[in-house]
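Lab notebook: predicted structure, single chain.

Context: the supervisor wants predicted structures on file for every construct in the current expression panel, including those that have not yet been purified. This is the next one on the list. No modifications to the sequence; it matches the entry in the shared construct table.
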Amino acid sequence: MGEGIKKAVRILLTNLLMVICSIPVITAGAAIAAAFYVNLKLAGGEDVSVVKMFFNSFKQNFLQGTLMWIITLPFLAGLGYMWFKLLSMKEFSLLFVIGSVLLTFIFFIVFIYTFPLIARYNNTLANQIRNSIGITVQNFKSTLILIVKILVEIAISYVVLGFFGFMIIPLLVMIAPAVIISTISEPAKEIFTDLESKA
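Prediction complete. Output recorded below exactly as produced.
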């Protein structure tokens, strides 16, 4: 099996574990942190034992991941509702479009690196959020490109859902989060490694 295929299988297996461990909903934050832990290792080219590493991280980051999820979830729900309203509007509203885009980018700027930071470092939750914002500011151009990539991936998922209907949801659940987490993990790993080399 080629290295690329092996890595893809591990990413999908990690996503499967994340989905299963997120079923109680409240545990989703710890599952997301664990998924980032494995993906950061994969982004660094490490040979990982997915199941072992996932559950070790899930246990270690359970409290902080859960608290971060409790903070993040209302923002996600609000953004989801805004975009649902926007896409279902019969009359175009430039103000609503600008507001939705702006709030979406603010959300990503604040939170995009928080779960990867939780996965990689022991710190207070306040510092994880603060460091996520700091990393975004220091790497604004690359983070902006990353945000655009994620939004494109989300848009593709939406188009696929619209084309195939609800029957495609199980497949999207198995693939879309894996792609997004992997997309974030690649540059996050580079940034973290660079920061650690300067410490």
